[in-house]
Design a protein that fits this description.
5 strands, 36% helix, 4 helices, 160 residues
């Protein structure tokens, strides 16, 4: 269920999450690049006790929340969990009352519900990028997420 509107501003959203241990301290990061102007915004944050999948989801959620108007968003992520969830699984989970095909509760349901609401506002398309493969925006997001993870863990990101 994706909106489509050619009048929406075009935005690229690059995201990544990082975690030490699973669970453990984690960080998320995004870069937003706006249409023809190329203006960029980036942000990151962390959690002292989380999972990698929660950080990957949080990166997309926070990036979409940062948009002030409904937009046509190209989402770039190295997380197949997030991209497959948005592109394939989410509608089925909702139809099954937030259960997987195996009738188990959906993990990270709170974050998936947030993404479900956000995709009603924005027209989303999805692009997988190979992590740690010299993709400039993915590398930048990874570095920011690692710094945020280290801050969440109480470590000085500059030390070490």
């Amino acid at each position: 269920m994706t909106n489509t509107n050619d009048d929406m501003p075009g935005v690229e959203l690059y995201t990544d999450g990082a975690c030490s241990g699973n669970p453990g301290p984690g960080g998320w990061a995004y870069i937003l690049r706006h249409g023809p102007s190329g203006a960029e915004r980036e942000d990151s944050g962390g959690d002292p006790a989380t999972t990698n999948n929660r950080m990957e989801l949080s990166a997309v959620i926070e990036g979409l929340r940062a948009l002030k108007t409904p937009s046509s968003v190209e989402v770039y992520s190295d997380s197949k969990y997030v991209l497959d969830g948005l592109a394939s699984w989410l509608d089925q989970w909702i139809k099954r009352g937030w259960k997987t095909a195996a009738k188990k509760p959906v993990k990270n349901e709170d974050l998936w519900r947030d993404l479900d609401e956000l995709r009603k506002t924005h027209a989303l398309s999805f692009h997988w990028v190979r992590g740690h493969n010299e993709h400039p925006e993915n590398e930048r997001c990874d570095a920011m997420a690692v710094e945020a993870r280290d801050r969440a863990a109480g470590r000085d990101p500059g030390a070490g």
